[in-house]
Amino acid sequence: MSRKDQIDSEGRRLATTVWTALDRKAGAIIELTVRQLKNKTSTWTVMGVSVLLLTLLSAFYIDAVRQGFESIDNDGDSVDFDGDGYPLGQEMKYGSSDYDDREFPGAAIFIPEDQINYWGVRTHSGNYTWDVFGPSKFTGNWENAAYNFDGSNDECPEIIGENLENTPYGYSSFACTLADNSLYVQFLRFDGNGTLAVAEGWNAEYGRTTESYYVPPDPPSAYIDEDGLDWDSEDPSQSQGFDDDGDCTQENYYLPTGNQNNDENRNGIACDVQWIRGPDGSVLQINKDEFVDEDPVDSELLGESSHRSFIIATGKIAFAMIIGIFLPLFLALGLIRDESENGTLHYLLSKPIHRGEFIVYRLTGYLIFTGGFVLAMSLIMALITVTIGPDGNRLGDINVWFGIGIVTVLSLAAYGSIFNAMGLISPKYGVYFALVYGVYEFAMAVMTLFGADLVPIISVSHWSLQMIDAIVILAWPDTIMLAQMATAFNLESGLAFFWNPPVHTFGTGSSALALSLSVIVLLVFITFPILIGQSIFNRREID
Q: CB within 8 A of 252, min separation 6: which ones?
């Protein structure tokens, strides 16, 4: 006897048992639902808008990749502030000022040795370069005046008293000859062998002036991308980084400025970058010493971070927030309500079928149709980013896009069951309830994007976005490090805005736990409205 001819305990052939009948009923209702959705104008309108949105986003992405990423002088040392032809980075190496065009590499530079302070001894003698900051009297041989000041041989005006209490020309450079043939000077740098007496309340410096020589100016491009991120994610050490351009260690500087022992992160190591790791080894915080790794290669760092930012932003905003909310709003609300209004519901329920089953089959048909569309769109987006994305292992892109597709399908199921239940609760006003709820979910999603983790907890969008955050860190384990890079070095990266580490991990920091918890919560959002809708539908009379 063949299997189809076998008889069950109640005398029915196995071919006509409840399970095979269930299969036929489920298949028929699912097929009917899919066919109805295919024939609705609203279906193709919403899907067309979704395709248009993703097309525009892809066009912007392709254009950005085609143009590339222009290198940026992150630390600003390629700028020539004083216009003398030498960029700031080169002037720092030689100890010259980039705010005075008379000071440049190779030019005679004043190197102070000591000073006459505002208090204490008011005179000093010797053969120096003198830099006077107030009314002073110099007795000795005048060799030359820096700033090419003329008129020092003129007699001083009577306004100048014995105590040098009156300055003739305010705070401008000035010199003149006093009655005793000494020199009155103010706010002037000059060379001389003799004695300088400084008026009370003023000060002066004295030192040496270097010999001038020619130094060819460096091109500004030499100071762009010259101090990259020398970090090894496989190195368990907390100390990272290297001062490529030497502006921290100043080992090759002609005139060091005294910053060689820079240890702002206070880890006992000068001129490095400190990584603070979590229990799982992930980088939680980056503390840098000044002038270390401050001018990275933008095409490498910003290229990868911008690429990931695009995927995350598209996944969260386009898929989870827009498609995930508005597609079920237009397609799931009337799965049963429309049949009741059209007078066809009693035909569909004329066969022996439980009304709870009917709801599940209708939602399944809706989910197969919309979920297939979402997965197809995520696959197309994956092909685009994998093909034209930055060099490197792009396998993570596929995993993230697949995860985004799954998250969106779960969102479609959750919102579909919620909107369908609203249509059953109030066939007349359900559409208004659904619109209000859609706006609420969108607002909670925006709050989640900005880092809120408590207020939006009673929303599908919050858990969907956290699920994407968890998928990102599982597919790209170095995402935390990239985000910390951008924060530590003030780099323009969308990661800091579009991605946040999962928050609901019970203090473990485990992305896998956050992912599992998000799936469970979304399943609750799917199941609970179905049970409510079933309870209401079972008690309703069908005309």
A: 93, 246
For residue 57, give every residue at least 6 positions away whose Cβ sits within 8 Å of its Cβ, in sequence order, or none: 310, 314, 318
For residue 236, the tally of other CB atoms under 10 A from its CB is 9
Amino acid at 463: W
Mean pLDDT of 76-101: 90
CA dihedral 193, 194, 199, 204 (to 10 degrees): 30
H-helix segments, 257-344: 298-313, 324-331, 337-342
How many angstroms separate the CA atoms of 63 and 137, rounded?
68
- Do 119 and 200 touch, CB atoms closer than 8 A? no
In the numeric block, which tokens belong to residue 221?
């491009």
- Taking the CB of residue 518, how many other CB atoms lie within 10 A of it? 24
How many CB atoms sit inside 10 A of residue 429's CB? Answer: 11
User: Rounded mean pLDDT of 422-438?
Assistant: 87
What the block records as the tokens of 475 is 């597919």
Q: What's the pLDDT tens digit per position in 280-307?
A: 677 778 888 989 998 888 777 777 888 8
Q: Per mean pLDDT, which range of 53-62, 342-351, 402-411 is the poorest?
A: 342-351
Confidence band of 181 (pLDDT split at 50, 70, 90):
confident
Amino acid at 371: G
Is 268 in a helix, a strand, or coil? coil
Q: How many CB atoms are located within 10 Å of the residue 23 CB?
A: 11
Beta-carbon neighbour count of residue 197 at 10 Å? 18
Judge whether residue 268 has pLDDT over 50: yes
The span from the CA of 430 to the CA of 162, in Å, is 96
